[in-house]
Amino acid sequence: MNTSLPYTLQNCFATARDEAEVSSLLNNDIYKFLMLDFILAHPEYSDMRVRWAMTVRDPSVHLADVIPEHTLRSQLDMTKSINWVTEADLSYLRGMTTSTGRRIFREETLGFLKNFRLPDYQLENDGNGGYNLSFEGSWATSMMWEIPALKIVNSLYLYHYAKKAKVTPSEWNGVMTKTFARLYSDIDTMKWDNRVTFSEFGTRRAASTDIHRRVLEILQSELPGQCLGSSNVMLSREIGSSNPRGTNAHELRMIPTAFEDDSKDIINKMYEVDRQWMAHFPELAILLPDTFGSTFYFKNAPRDIIEGHTGARFDSKDPLVAIPEYVNWLLDNGQDPKTKVGIPSDWLDAHSMVEIVRHNVDLIGNLTHGFGTGLTNNTKWTFPKAKENFGPFGSFSVVIKPEAVWREDKGEWVSTVKLSDNPNKAKGSPERVELFKKTFGVEGMENQAVVV
Questions:
Q1: Whose C-alpha in 41, 227, 230, 253 is 20 to 30 A from the C-alpha of 414?
Q2: Which residues touch 297 (CB under 8 Å, ≥6 apart)?
Q3: Are 191 and 116 in a shared domain?
Q4: Pairing assessment for the beta strands 366-367 and 341-344 based on DSSP bridges
Q5: What is the dihedral of CA 41, 427, 375, 352, to 10 degrees?
Q6: Beta carbons of 261 and 272 less than 8 angstroms apart
Q7: Residue 448 domain-assigned (yes or no)
Q8: What percent of the chain has a predicted confidence (pLDDT) above 70?
Q9: 402-427: per-residue pLDDT in tens?
Q10: Are residues 304 and 180 both part of a single domain?
């Protein structure tokens, strides 16, 4: 091995060093901790029994043909066995404050984390080149598997693909050189317009923790006024530039609505959860309206949500469409868009962010972005050999979402639903998806390619 090369498998992947890819609970997105604090504060939610499942959206990706099962189990076991939260970790979380100086996390949440252990996982080869990976437990415990498991799967895929394809040390160095050249090219593009700001949201599909760390260090050095921070708690702590940045995720609406069967009750529950979130974190009252369709959400939003929210994240609709729709809704309801935050966050790149800013920066008070996989796993089409023999090399679309909730009233598991503004991202059993489509309609939805 030529150790003089800047990039080697050993310094890019923990598994190459027989180490855990995820060795700390803080190697996670901040929104998991924010949602945990909210869930634990609401007893009606904390003990809901939830089953989560992995979905590989790209049918050409066959994880089991690349990642050995024993290696995947080993990494999952190492993460599950972690003595998760140290006193130093708790002190860091305890010291986080909101923009108004209020402590973010309740002491009860820190006490929960001090004794926290991940629940068991279920893993099996599906016989078709894939893995069935799922997690089950109370909402407050099972939710914490999502990001670590995705980090493990993504890093193992790249590492074992390179090993299986017998990529040489020089070839791997070329892969990473090209990947980081793309990063510097993106940085140059963003430097042209200093109105482009973003938070790094790439934890769940990062190529590896080692690569993620290098990316963030470069961003902090090259774009100190434009890269506002990271959603990753551990790396934010290490680099020390700012508190980790984030709000909440679709699960916050998917899980409670799965306990309702009547359309009116489903709609009321969606808005009730957002109302409760706004009361719990008034400084982080960012709407995520696309869970069941942004157009419906805006048209039917209660007055207190219209007036009390602080902004919106646009996750599955073209921002050039979503931002004007949001701004017009605000104006129609007597709200000043200049007081709101807008956060596009779905498969962005440097050029698209420049375009979004050029068209929309004067429409809204604070337009910033959530920049994810395109930063931390920009490895597509970097394979150094003539042919990708084991499926596509590089980043791919994989998610772990709440799949079902246990309904005591029915004595069975009931599917959760996510409709999305992009129907290609819809999730749920056919009968439940149909119920939610009848409830919310499909206005404003448009099929788009799913890249991540």
A1: 41
A2: 270, 287, 289, 290, 291
A3: no
A4: parallel
A5: -110
A6: no
A7: no
A8: 98
A9: 999 999 999 999 999 999 998 877 89
A10: yes
